[in-house]
User: Fold this.
Amino acid sequence: MTPEETVRRRAIETAILETVLYSDLFDYPLTRDELAHYLIGVETDEGTLRACLQSPRHLNGQLKQIGDYVVARQREPLVDRRRTRQSASARLWIRARRFVRVLAALPFVRMVAVTGALAMDNSARGDDVDVLIVTARGRVWTARLFAVGLVYAGRLFGDTLCPNYVISEDALAIEARDLFTAHEFAQMVPLYGLATYDRLRQANAWVYDYLPNAHAPMRQEREIQAGPIGCACKRIAEFLLGGRFGSALEHWEMHRKQRKFARHMTAASRAILDRDHVKGHFNDYSVSVMQLYAERLAKLAPLDAEKEHELAIGG
Assistant:
């Protein structure tokens, strides 16, 4: 192995360890395919990554492979937990698709994607269905108002829809740019409005600086359509709400909610409530996650220099 190959190998194995440790913060072991897809900071192919896992040179025994899963050492029980959560997520996906079919028929909704734990098949029984919604310009708050109506309807059947991020098609570039946001973005699963989703990805190409292999959704789902009746109702509602009355409703709803949520807004909050965004993360935990991740990385045992030299020579 040449010195250049040794440096490249070390970079990939370091990225493997960093990626597994990041996922471990969420008690989530990765499959080899997921590890390749979400590998942090290093572009590579699945074959090279699998070769690094089969005969690691720089990982210092800090990871363990169980079947197709890669997990941090002493965190092996998480594999059984993930399998349990996959079963719970499979049931929740059925309800999520029903929600999205209705959301697709709501006026001014242009895209819907499942986000959060369900996007990673990591939901426990009773978890919410988190979604990101993209709306027509100038109708963010109106579209959210209709979505909230669906939230209340879902609760009658024991389901909880959470439209926690609603943005206008004129504001597709996401403000926060860090590993946490990049991962949340990359793991979302679009179910409606794939053309708008493509525009969303193009507007956030910075994500690939953090996750250079995640250029397409890990989970591929067939696009959901509203159906003929839903599409007809949507066109009628958009016609009725597309003029002066609709603009007045949009303005009223935005200011009503801004007044209601004003007491929750703090300097540390990453919530955004304006004409193009409804991002209600008042108790945002991305900062604490990134701090904890930095602490985990700082504790990594460095490879002994003499051992590294021997490995380089022996390669």
Remarks:
- The mean pLDDT is 88.
